[in-house]
Every structure is written in structure tokens, then in C-alpha cells.
Give the backbone structure.
Amino acid sequence: MNRAQQNRIAELVERKFDGSLTVTEFSELEASLIEDEESRRLFLDLTHQHAHLRLMSDSLAQNELQVAPARRIRAFARGALAMAACVLLCSLIIWRATQPTFIATLTASEHAAWESSSPTLPGTQLTCGFLKLATGIATIEFHSGARVILQAPAHLILETPMRAKLLAGSAVIQVPDSAIGFVIDTPNGYAVDHGTEFAVTVNEEREQSTFEVLSGEISVVRAHTDRAVRLTRDQIVVATTNSLVQQSNTELEYSPASNETRAIRLDVSREASTIRHNYRDRFLGPEFLMVKTRFSKFDGFDSFNGFADFDRISLIEFDLSRIELDTIQSAQIRLNLVPTGLGYAAYVPEINTFGIYGVLDEMAEGWTIDNLQWEDMPAVEQCQMLGTFSVPRGIQQGSFTLSNDSLVSFLKADHNRRVTFLIVRLSGEQRPQGLVHAFASSHHPEASGPTLEIAIQ
């Protein structure tokens, strides 16, 4: 131990005696005492010294002079030192027990409903314990830097800054260099991260856990055994009580021998909003997919002559290259409504109707993201109405979906493995100052962007 380390131990001990030791400093002192013998000896020496000074202080305060045999003084001092050390150690234990140890932070939630006793507001510091998410999505950032995106319904146990256990549900885990070695445990096995992004799903009914590597590398160990496999990108392993079966992403999704229906979630590959007269700089933002119409009559994108100057429409595209189209059983588009702070809800109908159109003409799919012009949008005859959904004007946040046979047929009929959808508000407004609705883009800081959720056989 060098001089700087000795001084640091002395400083921490002194802060403990004067009551100013913080949680972080206590952890530092504790780690030093556990790991280093010289630190423990120095700790005892400083404790003895402190006890001597207390004895001398008490004696001077009483202003008494007593003569006693040296042997008796030494025996008394030894007893006092031992008692002081015991008191200090006990106080350290009690002090630690009364201080909450935060290991993670709830950084974001999207339409989340919880069944937990722990505080669950974004920004809340979290200690070890249980989190049960009934609906929505929640993002938990561990103090190690690891991020867990929890998808309801899910049940997660927070254990340490480097470890958590998923008892049910699905989660995506993103691990930076600072958290390499992060562990996600499940009832059927656990994954050790080697710097990556991976997903875990625990199926309670089937008593199995699925680990899928999205990028990087992980090791998966089956519960109560030493059997392990190492996975790289797009590899999957399914852990059960009795087996650890490795499969590729393609095998799991498209195996002809499997009659199991599997859900695939596709994130948006391109997205953009456009505004009439192309007032882009002042009235559009990259985090929003904005929609607004002035009148309730909707005759198509070429027929907006009577519409207000600030009407907006948004486009989204999904890449279907990973999907065997004839295996699609069902599909739904999911959009997360978010507030823009633009316009007034008092000037829109009590119930607002939104339409989703599919672009049929593949030549019309050549739109650009950065500077989409109003005139470049597909014409009405190039599109097919796929369906509508409604939103009360008092709601400006929430998750909304469109799912029907028309959407499935549209996807199966695609030829170039890229599908484009237009999002339009069909209901109008009473005044031009009416509310501007928006759905989160993939750049939104809190809500998830558009997704296409497909069930395949």
C-alpha cells in the first residue's frame, strides 16, 4: 500500500467517525478492508488511536489525576480498544443496512402499468427487488451501464448492477463496454454478455427461455448444469429444464417442420413527414410523424385544394426481406401517439379518425427521407385504404394498432419486399388552429417508433 492509499483509508475512517461518510465512500472503505490485509491493519491502528484519544479526552474533561499500575492501564486500554472496534464494526453494519443501495434507474416508460410496490415513475432510482410490468414498455438502466428494455407482461428481479433475473415476459438487453459480463438469469438458464445486444423471452407455460443475439456475442448456460453455448449475431438458443437447443434465426422463423406460430417485430426502415407548401424547417420535427387536415372531406392526395396551408401527412416503410410472405398468418401496424404541443384540441372533433393507406405502385416508393416534398407523395390512385382507427381528442398519448385481413393481403401481394404506408387524419377541424396529432418516429427520445408485427407459420 502506497502513501496515497494510506491517506485515503485514513480519510475514510475519519469521515466515518465524524458521521460524514457517504454511501459510495462506505462501499470504497468496505472493499478495501475485504481485499487488502494492510488496509485492515491500518483500520485497526486508526481505530485504536481514535479510542485512545477518546479516553484521553474524557479523562481531561473530568480533570482528574489518578495513579494506577501500568499493567492495569494496559489491560483497561486493550479492553477499551476491543470494545471500540466492535462498536465501530457493528455501527458500520447497521449504517449500511439502513442506507438504500441504488443499482438502477427507471429511465423511460411507454404506457406502462405496474403491479409492483416499488416507485415506478421515470427517473426513479431502483434498489434490489421485484418489478412486475402489466402493460406497456419500460427502460431500466443499471448503474453498470447495461440497459434493459422490458416488454409487458413481464416480471423482472433486480439483483445487482451487473445482474438481473427475468421470470416472465420479454426484454432486450443493450450492454456497453462498461458492463461487459452483465448477466440475465431466467428459470431455465442464464446469459453472460460479451459486449452486445440480445433479446430474452421467458415462456412460463412452456417452461422455456429463448435467447437471441441481435449483435455481438453472449454465452448461455443451462440452469443447474455446466453446459454452455456461445452465440453470435442472429443465433438463437432455447433453454428448457432438460435441454439447450441452438438454432439459427432463419431456422427458428421459417422451419417447414414447425407448425408453431411465431411473432416477428419489424422496426420502421424509413419514415418521413411532409407539410403542404413544404414549410419543413419551422413546422416539422424528426422525432414526430405528424398528421393534420383542415376539412373532414378526404378525396385523396391530389385533391387537397381546399385544405389549409399547414396540413401534414406521414409515410413509413418496412423491409420484408426476412419474411416468407406466404407464411404470414396475421399482421398489425403499431403507432405510439405523442403530444406535439401544436394547436388546440378544442378545435378538433371529440373523436378523431385516422386512416392507413398502402402504396400499391412500387414506382411511388422512391421518396426521400431528408426533404420529402408535398408534391412527391403518392397519388390516391396509387394507394389502397387498409383501415382506420379512432382517437378521442382528450388523448394525446397511447399505443394504437391496425390489424385486419386487408393488411395481410397487402403484405402477401408485395413484390419488392418493401412496403410503404401513409398515415392520414381523416377527420377535420373547426379552425386552422386545430390540434396537430403526431406519432413517435424512431428518433423520439421516449416513445418507440412505428412497428409492423407479423405472425408467421
